[in-house]
């Protein structure tokens, strides 16, 4: 059986320029990532606007069923923890009725987030995020689940200072530097900031008004703009040695759902969180699912969207509708109406590839649960 590395070498070679459609940019990213395999927390893949050198093509990513950014939400006290009023019944994924529909769940979550007092934060401080993660590595031998892993993240309040991620590991903690956008420049990659060139950037505040709109319509448009410019391709078939032979592109609806989930991790301003919940309610195809557990084992109600063999879940407390976290779960692969191509064609912008075996329905790909957020004075400091 071929190794993950050899599979990626062949996949990168398959993206060699053709006469009519030269995807040179894609091939460069695949091969560049393959040459520098490193293990990093998934949540880092889109913490900043910079591209990760390891983001596409690293063997650990190829062996996984999904190479996507991970997110978690906010767990501050909302509305004194009072139960939310019951909502109208609607279609419930995985079972019938007695739950509010997705739009109502999200509206209640938005109301709670909007009622949360903003924390006092200076521009030179950091947002501290304490979370738990569970992730799976899926290969020909089966599924290996790691976690729950404690992950602590420090993001610059104004986006201009260097942040930090520390993830627990079996032998020793894994520390990852996050290069801030200083004077309009930052390292091209997160995992090698000292050796990669500086590129133009726009600060991405973690707890100040910035690029992310605070109104639902504006935030939804923002997410769809990113989705269109930053596509994701999913391998749905493979040939000898596990080399991908067929791909489908995620719809802009699914990518927008994923992008908003990522916003919920990167920006914890109550106004942004509230707008994000309302925006998700406007995406076609969202459903409600009962009895969904997050990475910390808390059982809640989830608003979900399923596509290309993966179900994205935003998990909420079933009584207060606090946002608990984000799950990525295997689902039935339904290609009805999908266009399958032999090789993705993305000659400009950025792109993501979800490679490896297709997960089984119900299989956990990733779970993330937020335990605490706070404002601290420096990266590495705990409240």
Number of strands: 15
Instruction: Give the biggest beta sheet.
Output: 10 strands, mixed
- Domain count: the total is 1
Radius of gyration: 20 Å
| Spatial order of the strands forming the largest sheet | 1-10-11-12-13-15-2-3-4-5
Percentage of residues in strands = 25-35%
**Element-level helix/strand string:** HHHEHEEEEEEHEEHHEEEEEE
Please bin the fraction of helical residues.
10-25%
Mean pLDDT: 75
Number of helices: 7
Low-confidence stretches: 1-9, 15-92
Given helix and strand content, the structural type is alpha+beta
Give the CA-based shape.
Answer: globular
Distance linking N and C termini = 49 Å
Description:
The strands form 3 sheets. The chain has a 10-stranded mixed beta sheet, covered by helices on one side. A 3-stranded mixed beta sheet has the order 9-8-14, with no helix packed on it. Strands 6-7 form a two-stranded antiparallel sheet. Mean pLDDT is 75; it is low at 1-9 and 15-92. The protein is globular. It is α+β, with helices and mostly antiparallel strands and 383 residues long. The protein has helices at residues 4-14, 24-35, 59-63, 102-114, 216-229, 252-266, 270-280; strands spanning 92-93, 126-139, 142-156, 163-167, 174-178, 185-187, 198-200, 232-238, 244-249, 287-293, 299-307, 310-316, 323-330, 352-354, 364-376. It has one domain (4-376).
In short:
By secondary structure, this protein is of the alpha+beta class. It contains seven helices and 15 strands.
């Amino acid at each position: 059986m071929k190794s993950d590395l050899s599979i990626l070498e062949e996949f990168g070679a398959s993206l060699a320029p053709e006469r009519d459609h030269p995807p040179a940019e894609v091939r460069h990213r695949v091969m560049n990532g393959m040459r520098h395999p490193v293990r990093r927390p998934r949540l880092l893949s889109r913490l900043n606007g910079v591209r990760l050198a390891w983001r596409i093509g690293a063997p650990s990513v190829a062996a996984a069923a999904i190479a996507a950014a991970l997110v978690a939400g906010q767990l501050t006290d909302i509305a004194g923890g009072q139960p939310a009023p019951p909502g109208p019944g609607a279609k419930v994924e995985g079972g019938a009725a007695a739950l509010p529909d997705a739009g109502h769940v999200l509206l209640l979550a938005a109301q709670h987030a909007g009622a949360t007092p903003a924390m006092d934060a200076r521009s030179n401080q950091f947002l501290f995020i304490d979370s738990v993660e569970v992730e799976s590595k899926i290969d020909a031998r089966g599924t290996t689940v790691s976690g729950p892993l404690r992950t602590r993240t420090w993001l610059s309040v104004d986006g201009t200072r260097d942040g930090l991620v520390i993830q627990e590991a079996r032998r020793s903690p894994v520390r990852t530097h996050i290069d801030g956008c200083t004077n309009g420049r930052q390292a091209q990659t997160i995992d090698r900031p000292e050796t990669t060139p500086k590129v133009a950037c726009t600060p991405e505040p973690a707890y100040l008004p910035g690029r992310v709109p605070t109104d639902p319509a504006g935030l939804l448009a923002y997410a769809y703009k990113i989705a269109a410019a930053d596509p994701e391709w999913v391998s749905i078939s493979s040939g000898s040695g596990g080399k991908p032979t067929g791909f489908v592109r995620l719809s802009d609806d699914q990518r927008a759902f994923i992008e908003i989930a990522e916003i919920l991790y990167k920006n914890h301003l109550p106004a942004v969180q509230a707008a994000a919940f309302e925006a998700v309610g406007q995406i076609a195809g969202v459903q409600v699912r009962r009895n969904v557990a997050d990475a910390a084992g808390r059982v809640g109600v989830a608003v979900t969207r399923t596509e290309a063999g993966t179900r994205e879940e935003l998990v909420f407390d079933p009584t207060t509708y606090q946002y608990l976290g984000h799950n990525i779960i295997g689902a039935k692969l339904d290609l009805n109406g999908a266009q399958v191509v032999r090789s993705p064609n993305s000659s400009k912008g950025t792109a993501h590839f979800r490679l490896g075996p297709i997960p089984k329905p119900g299989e956990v790909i990733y779970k993330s649960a937020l335990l605490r957020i706070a404002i601290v004075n420096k990266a590495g400091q705990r409240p």
